[in-house]
Amino acid sequence: MTPLMEVADLSVHFPTRGGAARALDGVSLEWRRGEILGIVGESGCGKSTLARAMLGLVPATAGTVATDGAAVDGRVALRALRRNVQMIFQDPYQTLNPRRRVSDIVAEALVVADVPRAEHAARVERALDEVGLAPARFMRRYPHELSGGQRQRVAIAATLVLEPAGIICDEPVSMLDVSVRSQILHVLLGLQKARELALLFITHDLSLAWQLCDRIAVMYLGRIVEQGDARDVIERPGHPYTQALVDAVPPREQREPLGGELPDAANVPAGCRFHPRCPKRFDPCDREDPPLFAAGEPGHEAACLLLR
Description:
- By secondary structure, this protein is α/β, with parallel strands linked by helices.
- The chain has a single domain, classed as P-loop containing nucleotide triphosphate hydrolases (Rossmann fold, 3-Layer(aba) Sandwich).
- The protein is built from 11 helices and 12 strands.
- It is globular.
């Protein structure tokens, strides 16, 4: 599969009183056409910042973003990227304008992209139908008249009208009731197959990523610490952090509890950034910052000195 998007050494640093918070710190990643790529990790590890930086919603401090092999380095290129790659956010109620009807919300991207108005109605109806909302029933409703699951379906429909090649899904089901989550995931997977979409699925739920994704990238404190085929990463984790995440998934018995908390991004530890919490740390871990090493099957890499 050819890359839809590539990021190289991407960093996002936010100024603080004492210096800078390194929310994203030298991330390199390839997201391929037609695949489902999972980005997993604890809250605060930089997953959402990565997604926003890829679409230019937060400015990058360093690094590059490319789509279809061309650098996204100006307003024209960024506009083209946002037409080709859309994003679904965590809380659908906050992303939908409460004063606008569903038809206007879904059509907004068409207006911004200067799509001829004669095409709007057909595109909106098709998008709503694809997410399981009958256009005749829902087009004139307001967000407050919808359930949480219906609001998220509207948000998904709003990403479809531009017929993108990829959709970034930032924790798209975490705010929904358990009974509704499987329905929304079913919608996303159905769209992925029907439209041959690439999905970038951000989640803190490793078991969910295992079920959905072709490949997984594990993030910790602004960096990717492991990536590879989903089965390889879950069944044969090469990084102690990934192992701790796997062991914490029920019904597994956690073999070695992960102690401590995620450090402050404004005070990143020296050496391996995971070493203060790592049950397998040894002498060089507090001095050497490991790159990604081969961890088994081709494409499976982990940033751990044990693999050197």
